[in-house]
Amino acid sequence: MYELKSRMIRIKTLPLGLKMSFNRWMGLLTLSMMLPAFAEMDPAHTSLSSQMSPLSAQASNTEILSDALARADRLHLADSPYWHRLMVYQKKGAGFESAVTKSSFFLASNGSHDPKAELDATLKGLFNASTSKPDDATACLFPVRRDWLVEQLGLKDSDLPITPCPALTQWLQGIQPQHATLVFSSDYMNNPSSMFGHTLLRLDPDANEQTRLLAYAINYSAQTDNASSASFAIKGLTGRYPGSYDIMPYYEKVKEYNDFESRDLWEYSLNLTPSETQRITKRVWELRFVSFPYYFLHSNCSYQLLGLMDVARPSLSLQDQFPVYAIPTDTLRASLIKAGLLEKVAYRPAFASRLNAQADHAKPPVIKAAKTLVEKPNAQLEGLSIKQQAQASEMASDYVYHQFVGHHIDKDVAQPKLRALLIRRSQYDVPDTRVAVPARLIDPAQGHLTSRILLGGGEAQGHGFADLEWRPAYHDLLDPAGGYRNGAGINFLQTRLRVQQDQLSIQQLTLLSIDSLSPKTDFFDPLSWNLALGIRQVSQDQNAFSRDKTHAVSYVQGGEGQAWQLGSALCYGLASAALEAGKFLDHGWRVGVGPSLGCLWNMPAFSLQIQSTQLFWQDQHAWENQSKVGAQIPLHLGSNDQRQALRVSWQQNRQSSQQSHEFSLSWLRYF
Question: Where do the Lnb N-terminal periplasmic domain residues begin and end (predicted)?
Answer without folding.
Answer: 169-334
